[in-house]
C-alpha cells in the first residue's frame, strides 16, 4: 500500500511538471529558423517533394544511418538471445500442427504478392508521397508475417535474410561515401541530377537510398519475427 | 487542437508510468512502456503543429514559393519517425529477454527475480 | 469545419485514454491488454493524421500498431501457463 502511495506521489510530481509545460506552451505562428531553411531550400537543393524524407535521408542522413545500425543491433541481439533455445528443441518442433484453414491459405497466396508490391511502392515513392523506407520495410515484414501465420512451420532462410540485410547496408554506406567523392559530402544526394520536382526519377539518389533502407528494415523486422516464431514448441 | 493532442500525450505518459510501476507481470510492464512511448510521440508531433497549415509535402496545393508560409514544422515529424522505429526495436529486445527469462525460470512475476536487488 | 475537427479530436482523445486505461488495468486478461495497447497506437495514428503528419501516421499504423502487437502475441503464445500472476 505504501508503495502505491509513493508511486502516486511520484506521478503527481511528474504531472505537475507536465502541467506547467502545458500552461507555458504557446503555439508558434511562424516556422523557426531551421524549419524555414528546410522549407525554402529543399526544393532546389534536394529536389524531393516530401520535406520529411529530405530531412531523414539527406539533411540528417547520419541520424538515419545510426538508426538503421541500432535496428540491426536489436535484430542481432534478438537472434542471439533466442538462438540457444532453438538448437535443443529442433526435434520437438516437428510435432504435427493442425493445418490452417482453406480460407487463410488461399487468402495468403493471393495477398502476399500484393502486400509485397505495396511495400515496394511505398518505399520507391518515399520522396514524393508520405511513406518511405521504414514504412515500406514494415509492410514487407508484414507479408512475411502473413506467411508465418499461414504455416508456422515454414522455414525461412536465415542466410538469405542476412545476405539481403548486409548488402543493403553496404550499398547504403557506399552511396554515402560516393557522396564525398562526387558531391558535397557524406550522404549528399546530388550524385545524380536532382531532376524536376514531383517526378519519380528526381531528388538524386534519395529513391535509391530509401529503397535499400526499406529492404534493410524489412529484412531486420523479418528476422526478428522469424526468430521469435522459430521458438515454437519449447 | 494541438492542446488536445498534447494533453492526451501527457496523460498517456502518466498512465504508462503508473502501469509500469504498479504491475508485477513483466509482460504488462512492457505493454505500459509502449503506451508511454506512444504518449511521448504524440506530444512531440503536437509541438510541431500549427493552426491552419498543411503537411510538409510540396505539390500543386503547396507551391515552392509559398512553402514557408503554408507548411507545418517538419523536424519533429522526422524525429518521431526515428523514435517509433527505435521504440519497436527496444520493445522486441525486451520481449526476447522476457522469453529467455521465462524459459529459464518459468515465471513472469518481477518479484521472483531478486538477484540484482540490494 | 473547425468545430467538427475539434469535436472529433476530443472524442479521439477520450477513446485513446480509455483504451490506455484498459491496457494498464491489471485485472484484464493479457490478450485484451495487448489488443488495447494496439488500439492506443492505432488511435494515436489517426491523431497524427489530424495533426497533419501523414508520414508519422503511416509509421505508427504499420510499425507501432501492426508489428508490435504481433511481437507481443508471439511471445505471449510461448509463455502461456503460469503467466497469471
Tell me, what is the CATH class of chain B? Mainly Alpha
- In terms of quaternary structure, what is this? heterotrimer
Largest sheet, strands/sense/barrel of chain B = none
The CATH architecture of chain B comes to: Orthogonal Bundle
* Global shape of chain C: flat
Give the N-to-C terminal Cα separation of chain B: 47 Å
Instruction: Quickly count the domains of chain C.
Output: 1
CATH topology of chain B: Helix Hairpins
* Portion in beta strands of chain B: under 5%
Strand content of chain C: under 5%
The chain-level structural class of chain B is mainly alpha
Q: Can you tell me the number of structural domains of chain B? A: 1
What does this structure look like?
With 234 residues, chain A is an all-alpha fold. Helices cover 70% and strands 0% of the residues of chain A. In chain A, α4 (61-88) packs parallel to α8, α5 (102-124) runs antiparallel to α8 (206-229) and α6 packs parallel to α8 (206-229). Chain B has a single domain, classed as Helix Hairpins. In chain B, α1 (2-22) runs antiparallel to α2 (26-48) and α2 (26-48) packs antiparallel against α4 (74-105). The N and C termini of chain B lie far apart (47 Å). Chain C has one domain (2-78). Chains A and B meet through α1, α2, α3, α4 and α8 of A and α1 and α4 of B.
Using brief descriptors, characterize the structure shown.
heterotrimer, B: 118 residues, mainly alpha, Helix Hairpins, 4 helices, 68% helix, elongated, C: 85 residues
Task: Please outline the helices and strands.
The complex is a heterotrimer of chains A (234), B (118) and C (85).
Chain A: H1 2-23, H2 33-46, H3 51-59, H4 61-88, H5 102-124, H6 133-150, H7 158-182, H8 206-229
Helix pairs in contact in A: 2-3, 3-4, 4-8, 5-6, 5-8, 6-8, 7-8
Chain B: H1 2-22, H2 26-48, H3 67-70, H4 74-105
Helix pairs in contact in B: 1-2, 2-4
Chain C: H1 2-24, H2 30-50, H3 54-78
Helix pairs in contact in C: 1-2, 2-3
In short:
Chain A has 234 residues and is mainly α.
Amino acid at each position: 500500500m505504501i508503495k502505491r502511495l509513493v508511486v502516486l506521489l511520484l506521478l503527481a510530481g511528474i504531472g505537475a511538471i507536465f502541467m506547467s509545460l502545458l500552461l507555458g506552451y504557446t503555439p508558434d505562428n511562424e516556422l523557426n529558423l531551421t524549419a524555414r531553411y528546410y522549407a525554402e531550400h529543399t526544393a532546389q537543393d534536394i529536389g524531393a517533394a516530401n520535406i520529411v524524407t529530405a530531412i531523414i535521408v539527406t539533411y540528417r542522413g547520419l541520424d538515419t544511418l545510426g538508426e538503421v545500425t541500432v535496428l540491426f543491433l536489436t535484430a542481432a541481439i534478438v537472434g542471439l538471445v533466442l538462438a540457444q533455445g532453438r538448437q535443443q528443441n529442433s526435434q520437438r518442433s516437428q510435432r504435427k500442427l493442425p493445418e490452417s484453414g482453406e480460407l487463410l491459405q488461399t487468402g495468403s497466396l493471393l495477398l502476399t504478392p500484393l502486400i509485397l508490391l505495396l511495400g515496394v511502392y511505398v518505399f520507391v515513392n518515399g520522396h514524393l508521397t508520405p511513406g518511405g523506407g521504414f514504412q515500406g520495410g514494415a509492410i514487407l515484414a508484414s507479408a512475411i508475417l502473413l506467411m508465418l501465420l499461414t504455416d508456422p512451420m515454414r522455414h525461412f532462410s536465415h542466410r538469405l535474410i542476412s545476405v539481403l540485410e548486409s548488402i543493403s547496408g553496404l550499398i547504403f554506406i557506399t552511396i554515402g561515401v560516393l557522396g564525398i567523392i562526387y558531391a558535397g559530402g557524406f550522404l549528399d544526394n546530388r550524385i545524380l541530377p536532382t531532376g524536376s520536382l514531383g517526378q519519380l526519377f528526381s531528388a538524386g539518389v534519395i529513391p535509391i537510398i530509401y529503397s535499400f533502407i526499406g529492404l534493410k528494415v524489412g529484412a531486420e523486422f523479418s528476422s526478428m519475427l522469424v526468430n521469435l516464431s522459430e521458438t515454437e514448441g519449447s | 487542437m494541438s492542446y488536445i493532442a498534447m494533453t492526451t500525450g501527457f496523460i498517456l505518459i502518466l498512465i504508462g508510468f503508473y502501469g509500469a510501476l504498479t504491475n508485477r507481470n513483466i509482460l504488462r510492464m512492457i505493454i505500459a512502456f509502449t503506451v508511454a512511448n506512444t504518449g511521448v510521440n504524440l506530444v512531440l508531433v503536437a509541438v510541431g503543429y500549427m493552426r491552419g497549415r498543411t503537411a510538409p509535402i510540396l505539390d500543386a496545393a503547396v507551391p515552392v514559393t509559398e512553402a514557408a508560409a503554408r507548411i507545418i514544422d517538419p523536424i519533429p515529424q522526422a524525429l518521431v519517425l526515428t523514435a517509433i522505429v527505435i521504440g519497436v526495436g527496444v520493445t522486441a529486445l525486451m520481449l526476447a529477454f522476457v522469453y529467455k527469462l521465462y524459459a529459464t525460470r518459468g515465471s513472469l512475476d518481477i518479484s521472483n527475480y531478486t538477484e540484482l536487488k540490494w | 469545419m473547425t468545430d467538427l475537427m475539434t469535436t472529433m479530436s476530443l472524442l479521439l482523445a477520450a477513446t485513446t485514454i480509455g483504451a490506455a486505461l484498459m491496457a494498464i488495468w491489471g485485472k484484464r486478461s493479457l490478450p485484451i491488454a495487448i489488443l488495447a495497447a494496439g488500439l492506443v497506437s492505432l488511435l494515436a495514428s489517426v491523431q497524427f493524421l489530424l495533426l497533419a503528419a501523414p508520414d508519422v501516421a503511416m509509421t505508427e499504423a504499420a510499425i507501432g500498431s501492426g508489428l508490435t502487437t504481433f511481437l507481443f502475441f508471439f511471445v505471449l503464445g510461448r509463455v502461456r501457463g503460469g503467466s497469471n500472476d
